């Protein structure tokens, strides 16, 4: 495994310097783009890593996976009345589809979908972002995981676009709670900082039929786990989901902090981190590293 990671690192290293760090969240604009980390966690919980794999970074939209799991646990099948399961084919923060489709977001991973899911969790948890933080601490076997308040506050200050989505959904009767309360929880979840090693452990249940070895907890039923992996495969990489399936062929989820998690079912979970993004907001080196990995292991879900 260590040799595999070294070969991938050597292959993608020349790309360092390409891409652009997200600057629409001002607190993220100062992150150094010259970072790369990769960690793999097998289904026994054994982690192998390379590069900056123990450096914490802003998990951003990767939090949408944990947010979804908490909602599935509380709402089961009924939640699909409020959010769809289709790819959007549009940027993650697009508003247009939401009006055509009467305030029902296409899937849980575009911002509108994650906001509806945050609204569901807001109704069930006394303190949703603490519930989420404790959940990821258990899954990652790391009691030190915290949200970066500066990042969360910076996003809250620049919340207009996400707030517009939430109010539009409220106008369609698909949003129960106070918009700013839900945005506060959502931004705190996005601002959680974890390393590749933390995230590879925390998402390992996705490779293990819903069972987390680290937490010793059945996080999802095997059936629900299969469904979440299907959603990751069709919508986890936004409007790059098609070419990611074509090139990599694994369920995956990106965040604008530069992280991507990916799943090789029944084998291992992967997290790659490099902050410079491509045009659709996915980590440029992260996509390249996963492309290299899937070719080298000669395996895809398709
Ligand atoms: O709400 C936002 O725009 C960010 N907190 C999360 C966006 C994100 O990570 C999209 N992923 N590639």
UniProtKB/TrEMBL annotation:
Residue sites binding substrate per the record: 61, 111, 155, 162, 186, 238, 256
One Gene Ontology biological process: glutamate biosynthetic process
Transmembrane residue ranges: none
Protein EC: 3.5.1.2
UniProt cross-references to Pfam families, sorted A to Z: Glutaminase (PF04960)
Reaction equations catalysed: L-glutamine + H2O = L-glutamate + NH4(+)
GO molecular function annotation: glutaminase activity
Entry-linked InterPro entries: Beta-lactam/transpept-like, Glutaminase
Keywords: Acetylation, Hydrolase
Keyword Acetylation listed: yes
Subunit structure: Homotetramer.
Entry similarity comment: Belongs to the glutaminase family.
Record protein name field: Glutaminase
Species assigned in the record: Alteromonas australica
């Amino acid at each position: 495994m260590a040799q595999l990671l070294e070969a991938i690192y050597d292959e993608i290293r020349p790309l360092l310097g390409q891409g652009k760090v997200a600057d629409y969240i001002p607190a993220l604009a100062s992150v150094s783009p010259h970072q790369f980390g990769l960690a793999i966690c097998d289904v026994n919980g054994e982690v192998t890593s390379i590069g900056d794999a123990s450096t914490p970074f802003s998990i951003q939209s990767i939090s949408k996976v944990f947010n979804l799991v908490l909602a599935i646990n509380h709402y089961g099948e009924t939640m699909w009345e409020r959010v769809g399961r289709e790819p959007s084919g549009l940027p993650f923060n697009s508003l247009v589809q939401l009006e055509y489709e009467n305030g029902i977001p296409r899937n849980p991973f575009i911002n509108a979908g994650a906001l509806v899911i945050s609204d569901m969790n807001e109704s069930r948890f006394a303190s949703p972002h603490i519930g989420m933080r404790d959940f990821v601490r258990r899954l990652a076997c790391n009691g030190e995981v915290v949200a970066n308040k500066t990042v969360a506050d910076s996003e809250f200050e620049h919340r207009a676009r996400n707030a517009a989505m939430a109010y539009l959904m409220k106008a369609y009767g698909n949003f129960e709670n106070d918009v700013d309360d839900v945005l506060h929880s959502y931004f705190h979840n996005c601002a959680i900082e974890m390393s590749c090693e933390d995230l590879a452990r925390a998402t390992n249940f996705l490779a293990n039929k819903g069972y987390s070895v680290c937490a010793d907890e059945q996080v999802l039923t095997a059936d629900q786990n299969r469904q979440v992996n299907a959603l990751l495969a069709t919508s986890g990489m936004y409007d790059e989901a098609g070419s990611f399936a074509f090139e990599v062929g694994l369920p995956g989820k990106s965040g604008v902090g530069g992280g991507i998690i990916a799943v090789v079912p029944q084998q291992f979970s992967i997290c790659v981190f490099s902050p410079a993004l491509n045009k659709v907001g996915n980590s440029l080196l992260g996509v390249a590293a996963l492309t290299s990995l899937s070719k080298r292991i000669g395996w895809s879900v398709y």
